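[Meeting: bench + compute handoff]

Bench side (C.D.) handed over the final construct sequence. Compute side (W.E.) agreed to return the predicted structure before the next meeting so the bench team could plan truncations. Sequence as handed over:
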Amino acid sequence: MGRSVVTRGVTRCAICQFAPRWCTCAGLRTLECPLQVDILIHRREAWRPTSTSRLLTRVLPAALGHIFSQDLPLDRNRIVRPDRTLWILHPAGDLPPSPVAPESLQVLLLDGSWREASRMRRQVESWGRLIRLPPGKPSRYHLRNQHSEDRYSTAETLILLLETLGMPEVAAALRHQFDLHVYAGLRSRGAVVEAEDFLAGTTLETSLPTVLRDLRQRRRCP
């Protein structure tokens, strides 16, 4: 793919981690969600601008991120909420039961490569119930090479869960933020054609028209 502002050492926005030219902060729309969302983030993912775990903690103010490192033990009591049922999302789990009240759930997302996610799973699977989601549309996370169409980014996993639990409005609003993240990421790499092709499959032109227009103009990060 085209040039990368990351490898060139360009200054990044402290919030979205994109270069100022492609900062997405003006498009940030925070959301309220009845789920308690926690994200176990592999240390290698923590500061990557392509990471969607950072996107989730920006969009969902109540979401909590926890850094995973093999050198540091995890403290279950600091993560698991005793007043909620914990679901750990992983393809090795069971399909979610139905019906279920979102207000009763805590969801733990595993953010890392598939090998890293497997290691994280082994450390936390005894904490709650492993849950896999029903198949959805192919991943649109064009910032990384997906080895299979049924493998999703962390943000897409949460979007699919929200849809499964009957919260299409919240899922759609989160999808807008995800789409903006991917579009800006592609443009930051100089992948103009791929970015415009991606944009054609989104509703950003109508959902965030001013933000999209401003992204195409030179500006400073707020």
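W.E. noted at the follow-up: The helical segments are 52-59, 76-79, 114-124, 154-164, 168-188, 192-200, 204-207, 209-215. C.D. will use this when planning the next construct.
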